[in-house]
Design brief:
This protein is an alpha+beta fold. The protein has 1 helix and 9 strands, in the order αβββββββββ.
């Protein structure tokens, strides 16, 4: 090996060592600090909750908006006995008009043993429960844009 090629080889080796040590230093020191910030930026979710009491039951409606590479919306309706912490999912759907007041469901008793969940329009449904404890649950959905053949239905 000539003197100029040995010098060139040592220069390249020093540059590679500098690049590798910089990457290792970044991974060890800065990556644990920046990773949570990057993750929060990529997956920002917010949930709005509405609570109501009916007879001996507590109803909770959660509206969740997640913005990752695409925005996803979910609305979930839960029920529990008044004062009970254990809540049971009754209904989960993707609203048709996210952010519009008409996409939230209305929940009421149609008779003492039947809970009626009504919503004007949904994009798709992913879960419906038709019975819980001693209650029947009925649904009044005027329009489903994309019917889901894989929807879970519990009776």
């Amino acid at each position: 090996m000539t003197r100029s090629s040995a010098f060139w080889f040592k220069s390249i080796l020093k540059m590679l060592l500098g690049i590798v040590s910089t990457v290792v230093l970044f991974c060890i020191l800065l990556f644990p600090i920046t990773w949570p910030l990057l993750l929060m930026w990529l997956t920002a979710c917010s949930t709005t909750t509405e609570r109501m009491s009916m007879s001996a039951y507590d109803i909770r409606i959660d509206e969740t908006l997640c913005k990752t590479l695409a925005a996803t919306y979910d609305v979930q309706v839960f029920i529990s006995k008044t004062g009970d912490r254990k809540q049971t999912l009754l209904f989960k759907y993707d609203p048709a008009l996210a952010g519009h007041p008409s996409f939230l469901p209305s929940v009421r008793f149609s008779d003492p043993h039947t809970l009626l969940i009504s919503v004007d329009e949904v994009s798709s449904t992913s879960f419906r429960r038709y019975e819980w404890e001693n209650l029947s649950i009925e649904y009044d959905i005027r329009s489903i844009t994309y019917p889901n053949p894989h929807e879970v239905q519990e009776r």
